[in-house]
Amino acid sequence: MITELLLTFPNTKTAITAERTLLAAELHVTVRPMPEALSAQCGIVLCLPAGELETGTAALAAVGIEVSAIYQLRDGELRPL
Predict the structure, then answer these.
(1) Is the dihedral of CA 71, 6, 1, 49 positive or negative?
(2) pTM for the complete prediction?
(3) Which single residue of 22, 50, 57, 80 could bond 29 by disulfide (Cβ 3.0 to 4.6 Å)?
(4) What is the CATH number of the domain that holds 11?
(5) Rounded to whole angstroms, how far apart are CA atoms 44 and 66?
(6) What is the C-alpha separation between 5 and 53, in angstroms, rounded?
(7) What pLDDT was estimated at residue 77?
(8) Which residues pair with 79 in a beta bridge?
(9) What are the per-10-residue average pLDDT scores of the chain (81 residues)?
(10) Measured between alpha carbons, how far is 56 from 39 in angstroms, rounded to an integer?
(11) Number of neighbouring beta carbons within 10 Å of residue 70
């Protein structure tokens, strides 16, 4: 079962703006350091419960924020969504 999704962004400024947008939409977003396996991008990722992905991506798209990639965290393993 997928319980958590990690959203990546091209830079830290975009990730912080995305976090504010998701919090304003009253979603359960948390900030975490970028996992080593994904270290090619900015230094943080945003985590969302799987059930909030559609609402979250819609909120980000409404303000022009593009997510670089989305990964699922399942049993401790990251997999592209």
Answers:
(1) negative
(2) 0.89
(3) 22
(4) 3.30.70
(5) 15
(6) 8
(7) 83
(8) 72
(9) 84 95 97 81 88 96 95 85 87
(10) 23
(11) 17
Q: Going by DSSP bridges, is the β-strand pair 69-74/30-33 parallel, antiparallel, or unpaired?
A: unpaired
Q: Residue 71: which domain range?
A: 4-80
Tell me the C-alpha distance between 75 and 12, whole Å: 27
**In contact, 27 and 48? CB cutoff 8 Å:** yes
The total of structural domains in the chain comes to 1
CA distances from 38 to 14, 26, 44, 69 (A): 17, 27, 10, 10
CA–CA distance, 73 with 63 (Å, rounded to integer) = 26
Instruction: Report the distance separating Cα 79 and Cα 17, nearest Å.
Output: 25
Question: Which run of H or of E encompasses 62?
Answer: helix 53-62
